[in-house]
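Please, structure for the following, as tokens.
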Amino acid sequence: MNDFFSSAQRELTYLWYYFDVQFRQIALYWAVGILVGSAVSVFAKDGIHGLLRRMGGARFGAAGWILAALLGIASPLCLYGTVPLAASVSRGGLRDDRLAAFMMTSILLNPQLIAYSAALGAKALAVRIVSCFLCGVAAGALVRLFYRDKPFFDFTKFDEPANRDVDPNVWLRLLKNIGRNIRATGPMFLLGIALSALFQRYVPQDVLTKLFGGSEAWGVLMAATVGVPLYACGGGTIPLLRQWLAEGMSLGSAAAFMLTGPATKITNLGALKIVLGAKRFLLYISFVMAFSLLTGLLVK
């Protein structure tokens, strides 16, 4: 019995060590992400969404997809806030192809997640930003090509999102937003670090190398597939990705994971199913998987 408790204590000591090291390495990125995301939400959100609304009657051509994709990345709203906003601007005359570009990048990336992803290194961060942006532009182009004369979205069940940043004191609004972000992301961030510690302690490095880095095509396919059920929170996956990259995951596989994960997160799929319907929902899933696989194979 004493041997059992001694062994358990030793394992807990190892796990705490790995947890503590990971936490110290990336906690600053999480904190910066919270501050950036909250600041954008309080000080810049209305301006970003105002630009999106003014795009309704403008003629940008292909540049419209680029601008909409950039606004989607800059928007701090989660999908359940983005969809009602999209419904509002759609009723205001914004074309579905521009909405597709905006919604695609809004699903994949936001200012807070950009700050988190800096913990993965400059190259991985650049890959994430560029691939998400191009995914949004591609989504807009495809909707324009195949749905030029028919609607792609159905927003009849969504209204304008409620604004929770209503305190007259701007600094109190910021503090309240920071508090909401901590409550929303903190548990998954800590869970991600805990899972990373477990991987580091109990999963041999060569297993991850074979799974995500051996055969390039196989590694990308596995990462894209694993991203579907495993992704729950952007901040929570950063510790895992950081550990996997350190243990042999290829950057292409990481890119595929970073695309399929948020795009197929279960809470996002519920809202998308409502606004797309069964046929277009399947087209969305097929597009995300194909784009992530192609991106993963191109990224070296």
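The CA atoms of residues 81 and 163 lie 9 Å apart. The chain has twelve helices and no strands.
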